[in-house]
């Protein structure tokens, strides 16, 4: 399946401002399930780009600007080929069903950053919620059930403000965006002994199945990956109750959400100069070259 992705990020200001360096995480890494065929980034006002790989292996471009402007537009255009997941949707190994996960010493050494919890829970509220959740389980795969519990128990909300809610806030309010759902799932999975990481990217509509999507088509998306022995990194999207689904188009991975922001940067200008941020994503199928 070949897909064209256009991701436009536009910042508007009341008057021209000076831009600090901007960090762009907009190019996926080639893998057996996702191949980058073509890519281009267009920036106005013009910027010079310096590419690097971050500690997670993500492709990161740093944009530096010479000119001031009252509008900053960053447009990423990709053509990718998405292959089916290597993991059959009917199978996960092992099926914990209440058992503890077991990593080898070598796996644990590499996975340790993704095993350590990053969200404080001084009163043990997340652990208490997990106890109640596990008491309700009647069988099936533990992580599938966890993703479904979040999907069914929370109310999805589009949030345009920056940042990710603390998992406790998401639970207590009973609502959140896709990144809030993902971060809650990750911190709960870590407390169950699983190595989990945050993923940003896109979701594409594959009608008629896409009609049931909870998250908004035309926006960036976030979900989780959990490392399962013999299966590797497996995608769990609690926002849409998906597991290892080809509708998920991965761009970047990180231990914590703030390390995987698609666009981040700064500006210098008078107080109140910032007016608005607009993000638009278009994902459309394209014919494969013969």
Short description:
With 290 residues, the protein is α+β, with helices and mostly antiparallel strands.
How would you characterize this protein structure?
- This protein is an alpha+beta fold.
- It has 2 domains: 2-82 and 261-285, Immunoglobulin-like, CATH 2.60.40; 105-260, C8orf32 fold, CATH 3.10.620.30.
- Helix content is 19%, strand content 40%.
- The protein has 5 helices and 16 strands.
- The strands form 4 sheets. Strands 1, 3, 6, 15 and 16 form a 5-stranded antiparallel beta sheet that branches. A 5-stranded antiparallel beta sheet has the order 12-11-10-9-13.
- The relative contact order is 0.24.
How many discrete structural domains? 2
> What share of the residues lie within helices?
10-25%
How many H/I helices?
5
What kind of sheet is the major sheet?
Answer: 5 strands, antiparallel
What attributes characterize this protein structure?
C8orf32 fold; alpha+beta; 40% strand; 5 helices; 5-stranded antiparallel β-sheet; 290 residues; Immunoglobulin-like
């Amino acid at each position: 399946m070949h897909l064209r992705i256009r991701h436009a990020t536009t910042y508007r200001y009341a008057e021209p401002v000076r831009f600090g360096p901007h960090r762009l995480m907009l190019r996926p890494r080639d893998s057996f399930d996702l191949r980058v065929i073509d890519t281009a980034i267009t920036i106005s006002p013009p910027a010079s780009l310096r590419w690097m790989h971050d500690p997670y292996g993500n492709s990161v471009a740093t944009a530096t600007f010479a000119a001031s402007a009252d509008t900053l537009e960053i447009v990423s255009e990709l053509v990718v080929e998405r292959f089916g997941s290597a993991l059959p949707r009917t199978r996960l190994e092992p099926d914990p069903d209440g058992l503890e996960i077991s990593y080898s010493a070598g796996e644990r050494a590499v996975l340790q950053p993704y095993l350590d919890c990053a969200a404080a829970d001084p009163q043990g509220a997340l652990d208490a919620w997990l106890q109640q959740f596990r008491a309700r389980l009647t069988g099936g795969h533990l992580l599938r059930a966890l993703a479904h519990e979040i999907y069914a128990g929370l109310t999805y909300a589009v949030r345009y403000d920056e940042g990710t809610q603390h998992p406790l806030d998401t639970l207590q309010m009973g609502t959140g965006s896709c990144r809030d759902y993902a971060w809650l799932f990750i911190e709960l999975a870590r407390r169950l002994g699983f190595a989990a990481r945050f993923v940003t990217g896109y979701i594409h509509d594959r009608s008629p199945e896409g009609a049931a999507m909870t998250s908004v088509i035309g926006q960036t998306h976030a979900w989780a990956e959990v490392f399962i022995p013999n299966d590797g990194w497996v995608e769990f999207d609690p926002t849409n109750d998906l597991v290892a689904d080809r509708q998920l188009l991965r761009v970047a991975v990180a231990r914590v959400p703030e390390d995987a922001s698609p666009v981040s940067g700064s500006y210098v200008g008078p107080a109140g100069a910032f007016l608005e941020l607009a993000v638009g994503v278009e994902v459309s199928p394209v014919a494969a070259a013969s």
